[in-house]
């Protein structure tokens, strides 16, 4: 059983677009950043819109735009808190904006001053516990803030869960609704962000990331270095002062300690740190993604890329990356091999990554691959037919140079999901193999489909045309050769329907490409078909030469009965002894099986007897048979010398 039209889907987000793959926004809009919250299934997008900026928040399941905030300058960094309650945005306006993602209220804004350079912000990162927020600034400073979440914010997030049906406890739902209606639980206003520590570097800081606790900070930038800092003392001090409500001392930022530092070959545009500090990655203009040990900074592996890398994201032992090349890659660090490549349109400036979803900016759109949950498939599941067709369309539109990349992308997909070789469109019944032959005729993709770890079925479309017939009609000779080679190497399932389809294709194939037809007939291996014989025992019949018979039936049972009857042992018996009790049960013994001085004895059946010759048979003697005993007579079969290779004489003697 193969999935027909279900699987992981590709979705496109944008306020000015319709649903569908490759639908673009207006020409002056570029997506610069993207972030995903798996708890509330929300996607945040940062845009550059005709010199200004905009932040948009979407529901991933419904693809609906929830809210949009205008910004004075392009937004190069957006980040949702892990629980989905807050959204941080920053960019070329040299400031950090914090929003309530549930009530859509602009909570606070922090403006930075130009020191060593302009105070642009390219990177934001929340810790996994949702308490810390790191900001990387072009002025050479990294700021770590403590997020002060009031009960009001938590109540908003809880109400959003109720509205989406994710909070199933009745008492919790009623309590959240009551708090929202009455305004209960409001606290005195406290600062939304508290500065914990500030780390200064020698040049622009392009990217930052935090571990799960927010106590370890990874920094990379223009100084061509990657450094890990221990901020535990500063974080603990901020927590202690906050618990004692010493608000006057909250502006004091304790220093942090650098744990290790690694030199890079070029500018570092992106860094990522795993939650458990197991891995640290960085990339940039060096056209490689470097994976390090998060605790020591030792290099683990290097992933080559085809251009500058703008974004990297770690999740467990996978790293996703994108940049100035036409795909988003996911690499398995433990297995040290690529996991999947997702084709893109244009450069990728931001990547969002989770266990279920791969999100990325693709030129003027934000796209997601997979959703997860009980209803939607994740990026690890088999993609749908439409998604794979979209991959093919994107890669072919990117130019001839991507045809080899297309073969690699399809090979990775088929290694993970061999059943893709047999998927077809639900309405037109067009198989993926037929689509590739029609639209691309890419030899690498066709070879990958035919060499999948499953037998390939040549499914006909609604017009009852198989991929083999389509390749002949459209003069796709390269695809035809590959299909015929797969047929000869038993890579195609030989079911009754496929055999009938091949028979129907012979006339067309012989007319359009007689050389290929003759090669197919000459190289096709004849398969044993014992079911074409009748129910009688035929394994002891000796044929004097090759017998050829033909039929247009699928299983011509009984076709050989008339011809084989003349070669049965019964025909050698005298006319009076040919009855049902005189059935010979024996087997042929060639001359090479005999040895001088050895009596050959072979009989079958409980009532079989063998008459031995008076002396050992000669080396060229042919055989000895056992014959079923009749009630009135016993048959003795003596082996004699074979006189002619064309006939096999046997001497019979009947004794009463």
From TrEMBL:
Gene3D superfamilies in the cross-refs: YVTN repeat-like/Quinoprotein amine dehydrogenase
Cross-referenced InterPro entries: WD40/YVTN_repeat-like_dom_sf, WD40_repeat_dom_sf, WD40_rpt
Domain of life the protein comes from: Eukaryota
Protein name: Uncharacterized protein
Record organism: Haptolina ericina
């Amino acid at each position: 059983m193969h999935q027909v039209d279900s699987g992981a889907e590709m979705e496109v987000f944008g306020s000015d677009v319709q649903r569908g793959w490759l639908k673009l926004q207006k020409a002056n809009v570029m997506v610069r950043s993207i972030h995903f919250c798996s708890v509330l299934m929300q996607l945040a997008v940062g845009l550059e819109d005709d010199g200004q900026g905009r932040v948009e928040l979407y529901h991933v399941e419904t693809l609906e735009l929830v809210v949009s905030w205008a910004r004075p300058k392009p937004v190069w960094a957006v980040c949702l808190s892990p629980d989905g309650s807050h959204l941080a945005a920053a960019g070329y306006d040299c400031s950090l904006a914090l929003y309530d993602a549930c009530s859509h209220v602009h909570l606070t804004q922090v403006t930075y001053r130009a020191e060593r350079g302009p105070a642009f912000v390219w990177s934001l990162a929340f810790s996994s516990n949702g308490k810390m927020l790191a900001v990387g600034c072009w002025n050479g400073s990294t700021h770590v803030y403590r997020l002060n979440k009031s009960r009001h914010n938590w109540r908003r997030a809880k109400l959003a869960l109720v509205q989406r049906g994710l909070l199933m406890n009745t008492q919790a739902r009623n309590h959240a609704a009551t708090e929202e209606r009455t305004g209960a639980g409001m606290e005195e206003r406290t600062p939304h962000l508290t500065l914990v520590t500030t780390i200064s570097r020698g040049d622009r800081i392009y990217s930052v990331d935090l571990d799960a606790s927010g106590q370890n900070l990874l920094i990379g930038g223009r100084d061509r270095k990657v450094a890990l800092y221990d901020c535990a003392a500063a974080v603990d001090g901020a927590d202690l002062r906050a618990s004692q409500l010493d608000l006057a001392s909250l502006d004091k930022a304790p220093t942090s300690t650098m744990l290790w530092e690694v030199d890079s070959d070029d500018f570092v545009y992106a860094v990522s740190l795993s939650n458990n500090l197991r891995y640290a990655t960085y990339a940039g203009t060096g056209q490689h993604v470097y994976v390090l040990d998060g605790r020591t900074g030792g290099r683990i592996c290097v992933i080559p890329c085809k251009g500058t890398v703008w974004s990297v994201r770690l999740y467990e032992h996978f790293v996703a990356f994108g940049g100035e090349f036409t795909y988003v890659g996911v690499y398995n660090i433990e297995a040290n091999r690529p996991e999947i490549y997702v084709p893109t349109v244009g450069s990728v400036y931001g990547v969002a990554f989770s266990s279920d979803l791969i999100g990325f900016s693709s030129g003027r759109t934000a796209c997601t691959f997979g959703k997860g949950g009980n209803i939607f498939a994740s990026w690890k599941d088999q993609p749908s037919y439409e998604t794979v067709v979209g991959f093919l369309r994107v890669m072919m539109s990117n130019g001839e140079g991507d045809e080899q990349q297309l073969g690699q992308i399809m090979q990775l997909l088929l290694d993970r999901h061999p059943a893709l070789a047999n998927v077809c469109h639900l309405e037109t019944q067009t198989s993926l193999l037929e689509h590739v032959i029609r639209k691309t005729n890419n030899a690498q993709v066709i070879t990958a489909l035919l060499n999948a770890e499953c037998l390939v079925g040549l499914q006909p479309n609604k017009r009852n045309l198989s991929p083999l017939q389509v390749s002949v009609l459209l003069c796709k000779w390269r695809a035809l050769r590959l299909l015929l080679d797969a047929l000869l190497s038993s890579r195609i399932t030989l079911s009754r329907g496929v055999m009938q389809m091949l028979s129907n294709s012979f006339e067309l194939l012989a007319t359009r490409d007689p050389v290929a037809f003759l090669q197919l007939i000459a190289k096709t291996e004849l398969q044993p078909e014992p079911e074409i014989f009748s129910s009688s025992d035929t394994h002891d019949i000796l044929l004097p030469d090759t017998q050829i018979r033909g039929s247009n039936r699928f299983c011509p049972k009984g076709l050989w009965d008339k011809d084989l009857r003349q070669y049965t042992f019964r025909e050698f018996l005298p006319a009076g002894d040919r009855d049902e009790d005189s059935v010979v049960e024996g087997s042929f013994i060639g001359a090479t099986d005999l040895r001088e001085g050895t009596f050959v004895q072979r009989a079958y059946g409980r009532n079989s007897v063998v008459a031995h010759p008076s002396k050992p048979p000669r080396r060229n003697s042919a055989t000895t048979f056992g014959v079923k005993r009749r009630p009135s007579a016993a048959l003795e079969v003596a082996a004699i010398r074979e006189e002619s290779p064309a006939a096999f004489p046997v001497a019979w003697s009947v004794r009463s």
